[in-house]
Amino acid sequence: MKMTLLLAGVCALALSTTVLAQPVAAPTTPAAAPTTPSVPSILIRHGRVFTLAAQGTINGDVLIQSGKIVQVGPNLTVPPGATVIDAHGNAVTPGLMASWTQLGIEEVQLVSETNDTAPNQALDSAAFDVADALNPSSTLIPVARIAGVTRSLTAPADCGDVFCGTAAVIHLGNGPDLIVKKQAGVLVELEPNGGEHQANSRPDIWVKFRETLDDAREYWSQRAGYHRPGGARDQRSNRIDLDALGPVIQGQEPLIVHVERASTIRQILAYTQANKIKLIVAGGGEAWQVAKELAAAHVPVVLDNDNNLPASFSDLGATLKDAARLDAAGVTVAFQPQNDNPAHYARTLSQIAGNAVANGMPWDHALAAITRNPAQIWGIADSYGTLEAGKDADVVIWDGDPLNLAAPTAVFIKGANIPLVSRQTKLRDRYRDLNDKKMPFAYR
Amino acid sequence: MEPRNRLPIWGAAAIVIVTLIAAFVFLPGLHKSAPKDTQVADQFPNDQFPSTYKPLPSKPTLIRGATVLTATDKEIAHGDVLMENGKIAAVGTNIAAPAGAVVVDGKGKFVTPGIIDIHSHLGVYPSPSNEATSDGNEATRPTTPDVRSENSVWPQDPGFDRALAGGVTAMEILPGSANLIGGRSVVLKNVPAITTQAMKFPGAPYDLKMACGENPKRVYENKGGPSTLMGDVAGYREAFEKAREYREKWRKYWKAKKAGSEADEPDRDIGLETLALVLDRKIPVQMHCYRSDQMATMIDVSKEFGFRIAAFHHAVEAYKIADLLKKNDICAVMWADWWGFKMEAYDAIPENIAMVDHAGACAMIHSDDPIGIQRLNQEVAKAMLSGRRMGYDIPRAHAVEWMTRNPAKALGILDKTGTLEKGKMADVVLWDGDPFSVYTHAEKVFIDGALLYDRDNPKLSPRSDFELGQEDNANTGGAGQ
């Protein structure tokens, strides 16, 4: 990935400093070919371009080649053979990224055969890995991406136990390989949620949580000897789960901790700081009450800001101003789409950001919370999250204010021009004329 | 409301007529079953738990110079709305303020009727949600026409306050969908109160909640059934057949009594009494039904027994049968973009509302959700925009009806509320901008002319008992949190 970035960076430099009539050829090294299929260059012109980068917001153009953004600026020259798309002054933004969805691992929530979102509830499992279930043919993916969502942090759902599994960053473009980054975090559920196997008091949950991480540390301290008789004590967790926790206890892979109550947020913050574990707070209904501490510790919060009800005694302080207050305190915020079914409702992501604006968050910060911020939080900021040279070309042109119920008129994911078609648009077209009944609808 | 006092007026002569008709009726082959042509009207009681709602104090109020969406397909630029004595007194332009009236500057703002959510479980599945507050499904038997949501409503649900801040002035609270026949629904005014009766919308008919599809069979497949869709339908038919027999028993009794004959009063059955009122079309059915084929089946069942389906709720496939719905005068209650959470929701499309509306059928939004109810204006906006993007011309003056006029129609309260027309209840929302923008808030909400929520005045932001004194939450809670 770093190699590709470097290459693209060189391209961008070349474009901005040399004669443009001779566009820099797409990287054609054999190594790059499989991951970035060769595509012709595309120039998006006359956009209101929200780069979310140093360049700020400009009236200008975005040039895409070989899946990458190679240049952003006013009045770019059209490379020979380029496809030119006129944005007619409309907003152009990075593709959006939804955090903590089950995109790619479920089709119909209540049809168990299609639902790969949580480990078997008999055992918690850090090793449960969404990457093992990703389905690039899921019909949810086109539904989400034609609403401008081009990336997802796909993670297990709340699992009714403490360790719910390992997340991955995916893109929603052309498959079959959707993985952008594996092992993007391990999901932990710290709120008592009445799960069948989860202990229902907080101290019980903490016993399980601490014991598992203690086991992981001990296991990793003598991993080589683990299989020798007497080499390691019996541990509650399976070896494969302890393996999955290695990068977590080493401070490389974050723990994504679902937690709502302020007191529990303080507690997990203290624990992770003492143990040098990277923490991402998810849910965070009362996170605004801990905003200063979270900001000081550089702990980001992933939330569905529309949750403003005391849905349980753990989030009596839920408010529509959560995101605005966290943001004002300097916490990096990213949005989860409607959190009871974030995969199917990924398309509400921009609306949730808009509602955060309506409740006090600056507009550009809310846009960042669905682009640049998740890129940083999930560790892919080198390739995604802004419109600048060298980044993957996830670009959306909107028919209005992207945070105010607008829809894309064009979506590019890693440079591929995505048809604005889904199973739902096909159903719409099939039934749009009910009067024509010469033949059954099945023939349309 | 019931015509039970009519009989004495008829006097003794009626008895003779009734007897003659009865003789005619019982001639074999001439009539199938006990009909409306007896002269004894059904007397099933229908007014338990009467409303004690009283409009709160109001001042004559003139909103001046706003964009007014009347929900009668009309948008008035620089329009005025005058509220007096709890009613809408005038809607138009250049309306003079009566002496002593509060004048609200509506410049740059919008006025709509109060939002009506026809499908809510506020109070029966309140916040916080836990084992003590889960009162929406009497999931002990698949058929429970004897229960009523109003007996489960917790008026202190903080969700009511949040919905008020979203411009919701009335809503129907339904039992859940675990059961084939879930019980009676109740229509409430969204006023803070400590009893449910004090919220009950005066004069609103009851409805019966029924449910198609996956939910009942999921709940009962291991509890004696139904476990299939055909089992669902058999369950409705069995229940209504029993209700028909029950009604017959009472009709015979009333006739005999009227004729002065000896007759034993039948045993009263609370559930069958409700179903008898449904058969009498005094209680319409609000029918939870996702799929087009299931809706068509239910239309046939309703015809077999003669009850009236007011609306199909969660009708995600209404767009496939919009013509059938129009023909049968049944409304479709839909989400803007919910889908896929279960198999029967797999074919939902965001153009559903617009397509049903375009076909001339009665279309509306609903929330079914304590979060969604707070922004039904945005849900309508999404549905409107989806329709426009497929080429339909949908003015906002029309789309506003999907959250006001049409739910009022489906609830049988359109004569009282749902539009901005002279004489109706002054259930009115002043928005601080176009209601179909995410950046717009309900700024003032009036119910029967009383200002019950004011975004700019913390004293007019109601807070339920539950949210009073919750530690550390000084900056949250209440309507305007």
What is this entry, summarized?
The complex is a heterodimer of chains A (444) and B (481). Chain A has 444 residues and is α/β, with parallel strands linked by helices.
Identify the most extensive interface between protein chains.
A-B, 50 and 54 residues
Domains of chain B (count): 2
Helix content of chain A: 10-25%
CATH superfamily of the largest domain in chain B: Metal-dependent hydrolases
By CATH reckoning, the class of the largest domain in chain B would read: Alpha Beta
How many domains of chain A, as an integer?
2
Number of helices of chain A: 12
Order of helices and strands of chain A: HEEEEEEHEEEHHHEHEHEHEHHHEEEH
The rounded Rg of chain B comes to: 24 Å
Largest sheet of chain B: 8 strands, mixed
Question: What is the residue-mean pLDDT of chain A, rounded to a whole number?
Answer: 89
Unreliable stretches of chain A: 1-38
CATH architecture of the largest domain in chain A: Alpha-Beta Barrel
Largest sheet of chain A: 8 strands, mixed
Oligomer: heterodimer
Low-confidence stretches of chain B: 1-35
DSSP, total strands of chain B: 16
Global mean pLDDT of chain B: 92
At CATH's second level, what is the architecture of the largest domain in chain B? Alpha-Beta Barrel
